[in-house]
Amino acid sequence: EPAESAAAIRNSAIRDTLLEFLHDWLYWVSDADRARVGAAVDEADDDEWRRAYRRAIAVKDRDPVKLKALAAAPGAATQPPVVLSGLCGSLLIHNHRAEVQAVLSEAQRRHPGDFWINYLLGHFWDEERPQLAIGYFRAAVAIRPNSDQAYAKLAKALRATGDAEGAIDAVRKAIELNPEISLVKDLAKLLAPRGGLEEARVAWERLLEGKPSDHQSWYGYAQLCLFLGNER
Which of 70, 80, 116, 203 is the most buried (most CB within 10 A)? Predict the structure, then answer.
């Protein structure tokens, strides 16, 4: 029951961490359970800014006016990075870029070592200013070197600035962490002008050894083999 859950949260040695991630859960939880989760967190957490934020995310981004108001409210600056990441993700859905930039920039100043804040800032700038995005993605991979997502994003930003060598290295690292077909195809595109398609084929072959069931993982591999004269 919510009261019992709230008491357990309040008395927990990791109360702050639980409260942070319960906001993420509250956003993704099923409609059938959202009211119970929200009630438990409301009883466990007295912060007024987060209480208003919970009401806003309970309707799944359908009230952008409330989200904008929360971004500008004085209490936003002191919120934990996990909560601010969720707020900015919701604001980006409605393309409120000015608010997102303000929140993330202040959050990065306060929490320079947080993975998600740096990752989101990189994502924020990767289309308009990829050179700036590179710095944030490099910070993200330094903080969490096992994140294939961050390496893939770093590769995209490096490629956009003309640094093909850097992009290839970043994609290789992403594939090493998570051999996914989209990454292998990105590697092939980067290596093609350099005559390095055999490396991409080998990486693709390793992925197929796991016998993935989706069509995309297989599509194009036979054609690549034929192009390279590999008909075995």
Answer: 70
Q: Provide the whole-model pTM.
A: 0.85
pLDDT at 16: 93
CB neighbourhood size of 98 (10 A):
11
Q: Positive or negative, the Cα torsion across 150, 151, 156, 159? A: positive
Tell me the pLDDT tens digit for each residue of 85-122.
Answer: 999 988 988 889 999 999 999 999 999 999 999 999 99
In Å, how far are 45, 47, 102, 103, 122 from 68, measured between CA atoms?
Answer: 22, 18, 11, 10, 21
Whole-angstrom distance, CA of residue 140 vs CA of residue 151: 9
Cα 78 to Cα 88: distance, rounded to the nearest angstrom: 15
Distance CA 201, CA 153 (A): 22
Structure token digits, residue 222: 């036979």
**59's tokens:** 């309707």
Residues 181, 216 contacting (CB under 8 angstroms):
yes
| Amino acid letter, 23 | H
